[in-house]
Design a protein that fits this description.
This protein is of the alpha+beta class and 164 residues long. The protein has a single domain, classed as 3-Layer(aba) Sandwich (Glutaredoxin), CATH 3.40.30. Helix content is 33%, strand content 25%. It has 5 helices and 9 strands. It has helices at 42-53, 55-60, 73-83, 99-103, 141-160, and strands at 12-15, 20-22, 30-35, 63-69, 89-92, 107-108, 113-114, 116-121, 127-133. The protein has a 7-stranded mixed beta sheet. A two-stranded antiparallel sheet has the order 6-7. The longest helix has 20 residues, at 141-160. The radius of gyration is 16 Å and the shape is globular.
Length: 164
C-alpha cells in the first residue's frame, strides 16, 4: 500500500456521468479516495452511501470524496441512480482495468478488483491517511473525518507559530 507522506500519483478517469476527473485538478483541496471492490454489492453500497451522507462534513473540511471501483461508467451511473447518490462522484477505474487501484497498490490481481481502502490526500498532493479494510467491513468515515480535522488543526497550529 501507499504510505503516509508519499506524493499522490495523478490520474484521469471518468465519473458516473462520463465527466473526466483528474486528481491534479483538485490541488488546493483535500481528496478522499474511497476504493471499493464492485458496484451492486451491499457493503460497497453502504460505503458509497456513507460518502454521500458525509458530503457536507467533507465539504466543510475543504475535502472532496470520490468512490472508485473497476466498474464501467454505465454501470456506475445506474448504480448511483439506484442508490440515490447525487453529490458524490463515483469513478470508473474500468480501462485500463484497475489502473488507479494499481497506482495506489490496492488492486487485487487475483480477483480483478480493488481492495476496500480509504486514502486521504492533502491540498499539496501528499498522502495523509491510509487504511485498508476487510472486504466484509464498511469503512468508518469518522476515521477519515478525524484525519482531516487533525491535519486542519496541525496546519492552523503551524500558522500561529511566530517566527523568531
Amino acid at each position: 500500500m501507499v504510505e503516509i507522506g508519499q506524493q499522490a500519483q495523478d490520474f484521469s478517469i471518468s465519473d458516473q456521468n462520463g465527466n473526466k476527473v483528474r486528481l491534479s485538478d483538485f490541488r488546493g483541496k483535500r481528496v478522499i479516495l474511497s476504493f471499493h471492490p464492485l458496484a451492486w454489492t451491499s457493503i460497497c453500497a453502504r460505503q458509497m452511501e456513507a460518502l454521500e451522507t458525509n458530503h457536507e462534513a467533507f465539504e466543510n473540511l475543504d475535502a472532496i470524496a470520490f468512490g472508485i471501483s473497476v466498474d464501467s461508467v454505465p454501470c456506475k451511473r445506474a448504480w448511483a441512480e439506484s442508490l440515490g447518490i447525487k453529490k458524490t462522484r463515483i469513478l470508473a477505474d474500468f480501462w485500463p482495468h484497475g489502473e488507479v487501484a494499481q497506482m495506489y497498490d490496492v488492486f487485487d490481481s487475483t480477483k480483478g478488483y480493488s481492495r476496500r481502502a480509504n486514502i486521504v490526500i492533502d491540498e499539496f498532493g501528499r498522502i495523509i491517511f491510509v487504511k485498508e479494510y476487510q472486504l466484509t467491513t464498511v469503512p468508518d468515515m469518522q476515521e477519515v473525518l478525524d484525519a482531516l480535522q487533525a491535519q486542519e488543526k496541525s496546519r492552523q497550529a503551524e500558522e500561529q507559530v511566530p517566527e523568531i
